[in-house]
């Protein structure tokens, strides 16, 4: 069934008076697509020259306005032409095919890398869209999700892919309403349509969907594992939907258990996220497919389906996709898909998180007052205003007041990996050398194993010699040569102390031995020689005892 409607197709203010077909596809989480086929003379003055004037239509704005007087229903769609095709056949001048998309296509301008820290979904998307022309893409950004996002990365994604992924993860409505991009609960028009009149056919379906599951997540800051039980509730207030969910819970057993690798702060955050995911999965348990000739509704609008000769309604539904079509005589028809209007969450095909490969970054902060041994880095694709959150760093050993503590310096290059390949879950796996930070300790035999700090403190272990040398920044050192010799060298002073006993050697050759009792004992000979004076002083008694005493 098709209805004659008044349709105006304008290209940058120019009306296309004649066309053989027109199609417009609209849906949530999708670019809307239109395709118009018209005689070549409609847009080209010289029908014998390809793209005589039609090539100028590329990039032009399009407006489709439809009015249906009997039903007093209408709608407006604005888009942009992205492709022109000239069709010639059997010697005839042929047709021009004009096709394009909603202005949301401009958000697919190419993969990009960018990061945000501690922002709401609203501020993040608003900030992202600021770089896109507001003349082309009007927007209404008012998502229901208002939690602060700890850290998120747009990694090798277009702006549209990124926004779709973020909105889909928390169950937000995202769609183009013909005039603007909407990221908010739908507030579209309410339309009543009667079966047997404007609605020629409909199919109301119900299906089973698994729902119950157990989800676990880990918060390393508090060293706590959160467990969330996801149930089957999804906002259905009609008997059909409630029955389908109850039957699903009865049949899909046992309850599966999964792991959430996202950063989470609390169990409530896990509950909210998983309930949103469950609601998305089950939002199309009840689905309506319809065929009508009423042009006055688009995605986000609400439909009340009524039976003829009765005030009884089949139900209230929310349109999630619709395909409009016109023939050359102006007859109009559409085919649409809708879900129960009571649902707050749309059925979204989840956009997978992009896989993030290991890569290097530069350390910009290394004092973590949280006492977790973390650093902040700046990836090479980041701007000066961007930075990572505090990142944990793998250590050879770590524990409560135990382990190895050695953080890279600010400006050092480090290698970063990502939990589950998620760009928003980086951690540092080690430091690396580069052309401006070279290592001078190596040799052909790989004999040296060295630890050296920023100031020059050095520990060198030589496997060929079996030696160890510990040296400070002034060159003072202790060396074990591997052959039984131990050398200690101090440039200014050396002091050996134990309680009240002390031996001091200074660079001038003075040796002091201090203690309450000093005992010098040899099994063979003790020889004391002085080129100048030798003084032995005691405040009370000097006692010399020997089998023989010889004084010269």
Give the structure's gist in a few sentences.
InterPro entries: Gp5/Vgr_OB, Vgr_OB-fold_dom_sf. By secondary structure, this protein is mostly beta strands.
Describe the structure using short key phrases.
9% helix, Thrombin, subunit H, five-stranded antiparallel sheet, elongated, OB fold (Dihydrolipoamide Acetyltransferase, E2P), 14-stranded mixed sheet, 552 residues, single chain
Task: Write a structural description.
The chain is mostly beta strands. Among the domains are: 3-105, Thrombin, subunit H, CATH 2.40.10; 359-424, Beta Barrel (OB fold (Dihydrolipoamide Acetyltransferase, E2P)), CATH 2.40.50.230; 448-491; 492-526, no CATH class. It has helices at 121-129, 159-169, 239-251, 267-282, and strands at 3-4, 6-11, 14-15, 21-27, 33-39, 61-68, 73-89, 92-101, 112-120, 139-141, 148-157, 174-176, 181-183, 190-194, 199-206, 213-219, 224-230, 257-260, 286-292, 302-306, 313-327, 331-340, 359-365, 376-379, 398-399, 402-403, 413-418, 426-431, 448-452, 458-462, 467-471, 477-480, 486-489, 493-498, 501-506, 511-514. Strands 1, 2, 3, 4, 5, 6, 7, 8, 14, 15, 19, 20, 21 and 22 form a 14-stranded mixed beta sheet that branches. A hairpin with a 2-residue loop joins β25 and β26. The longest helix has 16 residues, at 267-282. The chain is elongated. It comes from Niastella koreensis. This is Gp5/Type VI secretion system Vgr protein OB-fold domain-containing protein. InterPro entries: Gp5/Vgr_OB, Vgr_OB-fold_dom_sf.
